[in-house]
Amino acid sequence: MPNTAAKSSRIALLGLLLIGFIASTASADSQGTLIAEPVETVTDPDNTEAFGFGNGSVIVAPIPFSNPLIGTGLALGAGYLFQVDENANTSLIGVGTMRSDNGSEAHGLSFRLSTPGNNWDLSATFADAALNYDLISGGLAIPLRQTGSFARLEASKKVAEHWSVGLQLKYLDTDITSGNISFGGLPTNFTLFGGLQTASVGIVAQRDTRDSDIYPTTGNNLDLSVLYNEITSGGGNYTKIAALYGAYRPISEDGVLAIRLAGCGTADGAPFYDLCSVGGTDAMRGFNPTQFLDDRLLSAQAEYRHKFTQRFGMVAFAGYGAVGDSFGSLDESGYAGGIGLRVAVSKKVPVNFAIDASHNNDGESLIYISVGERF
């Protein structure tokens, strides 16, 4: 299982970017800008000799990002991290805010508690967002503004050495508007006139044998989720099922091959922002996450990661994704590849600033700036 020191820094530098970008996870899980060096710990987050709430660490981290959904901007996170005992994962109380150059902004609060012995993992996230982004439809880029409030609660229990199973609850109250006349001609699950409120409940499961959840070099990870979603405004419901599988193998002393496979399915009537998405569901680079949206998705990605020194590294990646109204008719697809630079932001754990340049089969080039690996 991933070590707890690694988890603490990942939560601090990634988890504090707790704006789930309600419409999609384009930041990924999710990214040209000026990269600022993050402010690291006020106290040492890797000190595991003192446990309990009163022996935690404070972390403040400004995080630049760039992605094709909401553009370039800066997120600021602040959190308090602690471990209840030596066998528990790191717990967190954090706040975050972000703003991008296209006027998108979001603010949120996050909480996570891992109980003694790591038997239970409890988490909660609350966020408000106002996002500006383009919906790609029929070759047109339709500008949208999506506002909303989001809440998520999750409780997972360790049921075997590498397995955990849990319950997830979500609530979203959102409204979407556009000044583009083409928006009104889209299907009702895109226009969502009058706004939408959705309550969700479901089962989540994970099997994780990785040696680290920041920069794994060996092991596998499987995430499964089955969510029932009730549209409380106007009726209707739908189910969404998603599976993400990652495998990691050392190629040399300094090289790692990482692979991700993704599958997704939603029932008819799901609002467009909860459809399966290439770039959203699977965090694939190369496409705006609103370009390939449908009821079904399959995708595959591979990435070679290499460390030149303790501070600098590179990646080369490629991926293919397809969507359609059924797994037998995945008739919209795309492939992309690229290279990236990695710059370590901590001497203690392998957390990287990532700058990736991608090129897709439509001839488009996109830049991503983020913290951490895509998968």
UniProtKB/TrEMBL annotation:
Cellular component, GO, one term: outer membrane
Record keywords: Membrane, Signal
Residue ranges constituting the Bacterial surface antigen (D15) domain according to the UniProt record: 147-375
Domain of life, source organism: Bacteria
Subcellular location: Membrane
InterPro entries documented for this protein: Bac_surfAg_D15
The keyword DNA-binding belongs to this UniProt entry's keyword annotation: no
Record's signal peptide: 1-28
This protein's name: Surface antigen-like protein
